[in-house]
């Protein structure tokens, strides 16, 4: 299963694989609340916008529709002045087996996330609520984060190094390449630890060609 294979791979190897096939998937500026957090699963997409003349807004009502194992991807246009995720949502998501949450914006109630060991990735943390400041405008539609368009079902891979979105159509190819990259890098480390020169090990295993875009 692709999700299981992705769980065994670091985002660094997946990023290198995306580079090799010429697909941009790295979501720059998003980081985990804890370096131990890891989230892998199909994207469930959500988009917010500022409140307007239609009335007040709220956050989180979409949570009842998220399937277990999904990674929630919330686009709040990168805003860092209001939060779109807090303690109640963390508690519910953790209880329902949701794999994690990625926010193009900020979160609050950080201690709850850490206590629940619920993986949160965001642009930072801030306590001011988004209620009556932002409104839910789309669920299950593509969202764009730093120029990367993320569709429902894209595979999200997030760890201490950041967050990636792998298009569903390219997922198997990306995983195959990433696994090969991991094998090559493991071989280099083993050779160097055995007393060989790092330069020679890199040359032997083709290290400098790992991320070179494939012409196949």
TrEMBL record:
Record's catalysed reaction(s): oxaloacetate + H(+) = pyruvate + CO2; 4-hydroxy-4-methyl-2-oxoglutarate = 2 pyruvate
Cofactor section: a divalent metal cation
EC number in record: 4.1.1.112, 4.1.3.17
Superkingdom of this protein's organism: Bacteria
Leading EC class: lyase
UniProt cross-references to Gene3D superfamilies, sorted A to Z: Ribonuclease E inhibitor RraA/RraA-like
InterPro entries referenced in this protein's UniProt entry, alphabetically: RraA/RraA-like, RraA/RraA-like_sf
Biological function: Catalyzes the aldol cleavage of 4-hydroxy-4-methyl-2-oxoglutarate (HMG) into 2 molecules of pyruvate. Also contains a secondary oxaloacetate (OAA) decarboxylase activity due to the common pyruvate enolate transition state formed following C-C bond cleavage in the retro-aldol and decarboxylation reactions.
Recorded family membership: Belongs to the class II aldolase/RraA-like family.
Record note on quaternary structure: Homotrimer.
Record's protein name: Putative 4-hydroxy-4-methyl-2-oxoglutarate aldolase
Organism: Streptomyces coacervatus
Lineage: Bacteria, Bacillati, Actinomycetota, Actinomycetes, Kitasatosporales
């Amino acid at each position: 299963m692709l999700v299981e294979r992705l769980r065994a791979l670091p985002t660094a190897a997946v990023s290198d694989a995306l580079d090799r096939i010429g697909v941009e998937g790295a979501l720059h500026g998003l980081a985990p609340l804890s370096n131990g957090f890891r989230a892998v699963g199909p994207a469930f997409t959500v988009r917010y916008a500022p409140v307007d003349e239609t009335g007040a807004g709220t956050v989180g009502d979409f949570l009842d529709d998220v399937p277990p194992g999904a990674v929630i991807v919330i686009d709040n246009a990168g805003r860092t002045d209001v939060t779109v995720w807090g303690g109640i949502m963390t508690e519910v998501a953790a209880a329902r087996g949701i794999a994690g949450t990625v926010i193009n914006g900020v979160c609050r109630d950080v201690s709850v996330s850490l206590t629940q060991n619920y993986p949160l990735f965001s642009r930072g943390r801030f306590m001011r609520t988004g209620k009556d400041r932002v409104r839910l405008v789309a669920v299950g539609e593509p969202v764009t984060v730093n120029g990367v368009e993320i569709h429902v079902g894209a595979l999200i891979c997030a760890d201490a190094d950041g967050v990636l979105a792998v298009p569903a159509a390219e997922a198997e190819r990306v995983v195959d390449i990433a696994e090969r990259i991991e094998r090559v890098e493991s071989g280099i480390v083993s050779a160097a630890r055995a007393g060989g020169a790092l330069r020679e090990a890199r040359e032997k295993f083709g290290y400098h060609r790992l991320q070179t875009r494939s012409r196949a």
